[in-house]
Amino acid sequence: MKKQRKSSIAAFVLGFIFLLLVGGVAFVFNSNLFEREAPQIVLPKEIEWNLKDPIKVQIVDASGLRFVRASLFDGEKSIILDTKEFKSAEKMVDLNLSFPKMGFGANKKVFELNIEAVDGSKWNFFSGNSVSAKSVIKVDTKRPDVNIIGSSYKIMKGGVAAVIFKAQDEAMKSLYVETNFGKKFYPTPFYKEGYYITLVAWPTHIESFTASVVAIDRAGNLTKSHVPYFLQDKKYKTSTIALEDRFLDGKIADLIAEMAPERSSLTKLEKFKFVNEDMRKGNEANILKVTSAVPIDLISGFYLKPFYPLRNGKVVASFGDHRYYEYEKQPTSESYHLGLDLASNAQAAMQTSNDGVVVFARENGIYGNNIIISHGLGVYSLYGHCSSYMVKEGDVVKAGESIAKTGLTGLALGDHLHFGMYVQGVDVRPEEWMDEVWLKESIFNVIESAKKIMDR
């Protein structure tokens, strides 16, 4: 009887110990204190370095990091770039590694970067999870070569100019023309390998204009070359327009009912502000998206005929007008007119003067039925307020082809064509693109002169 009791107690004790062991093992395997995932090191396998800008390395770990070390090996000896130990574990560590100022790796072109990290886990007998990562560092301190081959003599506010340049670097990363107002114009490969062409635009609302070709290689070496343009200022019309009830209760109310019925409860002035500001902003965003694309395939030339989209069309509103609206002599809203309004007969046929591809043919708010055609080199023509389409998106059109008829769609009070020109998303003076002399002097002659230089 006593033996049986002792056996039962022993079995109970053994079972209890077993359960403790199982529970302990389960705790170890499931507790965050004993997590088993090694830290993650964000480090490319290969880095090109100019020895000036720091190399950025990020290390993350779920349980937190307690030790990080970065070292650089030049094939003969190694040097510590950074060591960090943390009393309280850090879940993310960013390293900014700079090249030693002196006494290491003289004239070496290749190094090996080694990153080591240990987390704060209690795994591996409380020593934590460790990881290391290596990257081959290739030294490149040579800046890209940039040489301006030719450019337009001048650029007018609201207008366009050309620039052709040579840019070379075996590790080229970025190439663009930078302006003083933040816009980047991207080039198209031109005529021969290593040469590029782009058009730049000076928006009407920007007071001054500068442009520089910027080339950056993968190592971060940068070359900036100023493009010398003579700046021709131009004053654009400003006008104050008194809003009438028949316009607010008619055209504006109809636009809201058709395109934004959820806004029907707004007052008539609120409806006008919504159409003139919010709807306009969305419509112009659609245009910007479509007209920002730039060809990336090499071209050997570029030529356009002057644009005459509407036969016998009379100008009824000019480009660049800054319009201030008021109601009962109180300021209400404002906007810029980004095209040239042309009118002739009602539902007159409009033509494209140059070959192109239809990239947009749909309803677009205040622009009504709207067509946009790409003509290459980031140049686009726009046709608004169409009553009907004769083309669809994706169509290839030829010079002289009828594409639509004028109308009253969108924010149009009378039958007319809203004609616009865009260069890489920037609205520009249509008058320049309708001027044979301007096209020749500012674009085509620049191209031909640059070709002669490139052929030498």
Automatic annotation (TrEMBL):
Q: Can you give the residue ranges of the M23ase beta-sheet core domain?
A: 336-430
Coiled-coil spans in chain: none
UniProt GO MF annotations: metalloendopeptidase activity
Q: Does the keyword Signal apply?
A: yes
What's the superkingdom here?
A: Bacteria
Pfam families attached to this UniProt entry: Peptidase_M23 (PF01551)
- Return the SUPFAM superfamilies for the record: Duplicated hybrid motif (SSF51261)
Alphabetized UniProt keyword annotations: Signal
Q: Does the keyword Lipid metabolism apply?
A: no
Q: By what name is this protein known?
A: Putative periplasmic peptidase
